[in-house]
Amino acid sequence: MGFPMAGERIQIHSYKHNGNIHRVWEESIVLKGTQSVVIIGNDRTTVTESDGRTWITREPAICYFDAHNWFNIIGMLREDGIYYYCNISSPFIWDNEALKYIDYDLDVKVFPDMTYILLDEDEYERHKQMMNYPDVIDQILRRNLDQLIFWIHSRKGPFSPEFIDNWYEQYLLYRT
Question: Active-site residue 23, yes or no?
Fold first, then answer.
């Protein structure tokens, strides 16, 4: 199957547990692609929702996808600092069509001062019932939420001070 190559333009497809498409990012540039990690960048890319509505991202973003952890991390570069939006999700897969993952509703928003808030707990509980998330999935997701919060506190991976800036510099080289 291979992995996306640096400089390649790809789509990102987010699904729900029941297999329905949730959201599609039309174009992102791969900055690093291995079997363990894919890092991509995008700016002002079109996003299509499951109901067909579209919107365009407002700022440059560096996105971190991990094959071993049940979360992905989006670092958004804004004038007043880097904001992170973290999705509790399945690990990614790459099938030569798109980078794909299952979105499990729980999200963590991290502010430039590294404070954070947990979002969408009610949506998670509703979908857990509607889509019959197995107990084992619930346990994996809760464990990975704890792992993500540990990464935030310890400034690990994408939360390290230079991570987003360094990958954004790489993104600017490929963007032209």
Answer: yes
